[in-house]
Design a protein that fits this description.
Blueprint lengths: L1 E7 L5 H16 L3 E7 H5 L1 H17 L1 H10 L3 H25 L3 E4 L2 H12 L6 E5 L18 E4 L2 H9 L7 E3 L14 H8 L7 E6 L2 E6 L4
Parallel strand pairs: 1-2, 1-3, 3-4, 4-5, 5-6
Antiparallel strand pairs: 7-8
Helix pairs in contact: 3-4, 5-6
Amino acid sequence: MKKVLIFYAAYGGGHLSAARSVKEYLESHYSDVEIRLVDCVKYVNKTLDKVTTTAYNELAKKAPWAWGKIYSNSQKGVFAKVSNDSNKLMSIKLNKLLQEFSPDLVISTHPFGSQMCTILKKKEKIHAKIATIMTDYAPHDQWLVNSDLIDYFFVAHEGMKQDLVKKGIDAKKIFATGIPLSNRFLQHYNKKEILEELGLVENKKTVLFFAGRRIWAWKIENL
């Protein structure tokens, strides 16, 4: 039986949603695979996880411009060095899990998971294949740390694939698959029943806004 370890980090819901979707797909299509889903940051340091996820949530809600600046600057300079150095330290703790589970494949939907695994692979602590699912619509350098040790990249669109190729990554290991979605999006639903349940009118257009953890359905009267 093959073993697959899926890493995510709880900064927003996207990384976890993508990880769950991958797990859901593997479980429904392969009977000979053992899968574990792990928050890599929480596993290595619960205090760090609580502090950083709280900070992320507050910035995302109250000062998104500040989070955008941090996100952009984390590709270079001091921010990038701090992130890379901390991942080197955290990889020591993560190694315990990897040795115990001994996966054949490690999938990461957050760059921290990939970085820690490549650090361990470089030291020959692990020999598993490493797959990175980039849950962004544009490449960020944090996803590409030790990219030569990552076996597969799954990106949101063909343009991202070309961007990675320009950065020197072998096109043969980049796959423009889109960001993983739950199987629920592939199911068929009764539109009339859903509209009635939500109090919406069938002959009027509805615009659905997704924003973080809040969802609004906005009725547009004159569209």
